[in-house]
Inverse folding.
């Protein structure tokens, strides 16, 4: 696994893609997805299993989170280490996170052997990652904001100005917003928010 250093940015993908690789009759369809959590992963995997119900294998790997410690691989019936790990290595070779790759295999009648399988899953995964642009995103720190409804415009102006992410939004007489603030902008955003009358600020990280 790649060593990941604490930085202000990380790399991921924002769009889905599909690529195809063939070897001795077997067809390998690789799908890449941007994912934020295991619920996203389960949803996409179930959709592909439904779409490709006649395929013999649905192998995958994903990595989630900034520290890179949340990952999973599956060979789905292929010999151990021939599918999931080669897929994950392609994700790691580009230093990506919040990414899922599923490779669907239709068996062509000829056994590929261990080296052949490793090459097929590696190549299919590499191809699909070439089909979607890698994007750099800011690492965000999560804060909860509590304030009166009368301060809503001022708060939203600050959030918009600094391109903060709104994760949760409860708009009542007393409002609550969970927002992601880029680490690189913390020193600008927090003083601006503290200027808002009666606003309470809590770090959730």
């Amino acid at each position: 696994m790649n060593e990941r250093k604490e930085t202000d940015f990380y790399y991921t993908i924002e769009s889905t893609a599909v690529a195809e690789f063939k070897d001795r009759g077997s067809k390998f369809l690789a799908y890449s997805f941007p994912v934020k959590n295991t619920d996203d992963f389960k949803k996409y995997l179930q959709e592909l299993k439904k779409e490709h119900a006649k395929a013999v294998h649905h192998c995958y790997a994903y990595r989630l989170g900034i520290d890179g410690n949340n990952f999973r691989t599956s060979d789905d019936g292929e010999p151990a280490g021939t599918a999931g790990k080669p897929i994950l290595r392609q994700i790691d070779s580009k230093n990506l996170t919040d990414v899922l790759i599923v490779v669907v295999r239709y068996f062509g009648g000829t056994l590929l052997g261990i080296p052949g399988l490793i090459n097929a899953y590696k190549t299919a995964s590499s191809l699909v990652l070439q089909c979607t642009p890698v994007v750099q995103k800011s690492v965000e720190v999560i804060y909860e904001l509590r304030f009166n409804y009368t301060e809503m415009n001022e708060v939203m102006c600050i959030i918009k100005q600094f391109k903060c992410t709104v994760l949760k939004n409860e708009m009542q007489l007393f409002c609550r917003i969970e927002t992601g603030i880029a680490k690189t902008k913390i020193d600008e955003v927090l003083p601006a928010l503290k200027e808002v009358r009666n606003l309470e600020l809590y770090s959730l990280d």
About this structure: The mean pLDDT is 94. Helices lie at 38-51, 84-93, 113-130, 152-161, 186-194. DSSP finds five helices and eleven strands in the chain.
